[in-house]
């Protein structure tokens, strides 16, 4: 259908980094049900690279099968315009892909990291989230008290292997996404500016962005019912909302 083809090409044009799977997910978020292969064909016919899917791994499949009981965490480094190095700490839920950005600091001391662990435990309790395991790497920034706080809350800390990023694949994927979609495209002035940008991205990631790992749903919002009215499909009126000065794009039906 011409209206869908035009929308697919518009999404590809306005978001050069999106592949056919990402565009397919955005269509589902808008209630437009088409096959991913259709999006692929539209892009191919227009001479646009559909961006092949990433291959999955056996370890990733194992993590997915245990997702309901798993969290993963990591530090993400970034540099401000003044050259200051800041460390972001984030935690992701394997089952829902919900991300929690728990803070950023220039000095990830043992006391700061321990305080973050306590905040995480309180957040999980407030959300009624039952977790049995948390995966982390062997970074020296994690003090023994970090593990103790989590163990006291009934959460067992699982260390990933040395030089084995696939053991924390879901978290590593989020770090790459955050860099590609936010940090690599934003000039960060200072810690306050970084935290503002991260809060916007956290809300966008949890409430709007579709995720392939959960059938293109959003962590905090299910997919809408597909549009069944042919007239509505023919007369699509999709509006774009820009966040962070156009770094992030959200698409919605006109009211």
Structural features:
255 residues; alpha/beta; Nucleotidyltransferase, domain 5; 9 helices; 18% strand
Description:
- By secondary structure, the chain is of the alpha/beta class.
- The protein folds into two domains: 2-53 and 224-253, no CATH class; 59-207, Nucleotidyltransferase, domain 5.
- Helices cover 40% and strands 18% of the residues.
- It has helices at residues 2-14, 20-29, 36-45, 58-65, 110-127, 144-152, 169-181, 191-207, 230-234, and strands spanning 70-79, 85-93, 99-105, 133-136, 156-159, 238-243, 248-253.
- A five-stranded mixed beta sheet has the order 3-2-1-4-5, sandwiched between helices. It has a two-stranded antiparallel ribbon with strand order 6-7.
- Strand 4, helix 6 (144-152) and strand 5 form a beta-alpha-beta unit.
- The radius of gyration is 20 Å and the shape is globular.
- The protein starts with a helix and ends with a strand.
- 28% of the residues are buried.
Short synopsis of the structure:
The chain is of the alpha/beta class and 255 residues long.
Q: Which helices and strands occur, and which strands form pairs?
A:
Blueprint: H1 2-14, H2 20-29, H3 36-45, H4 58-65, E1 70-79, E2 85-93, E3 99-105, H5 110-127, E4 133-136, H6 144-152, E5 156-159, H7 169-181, H8 191-207, H9 230-234, E6 238-243, E7 248-253
Parallel strand pairs: 1-4, 4-5
Antiparallel strand pairs: 1-2, 2-3, 6-7
Helix pairs in contact: 2-3, 5-6
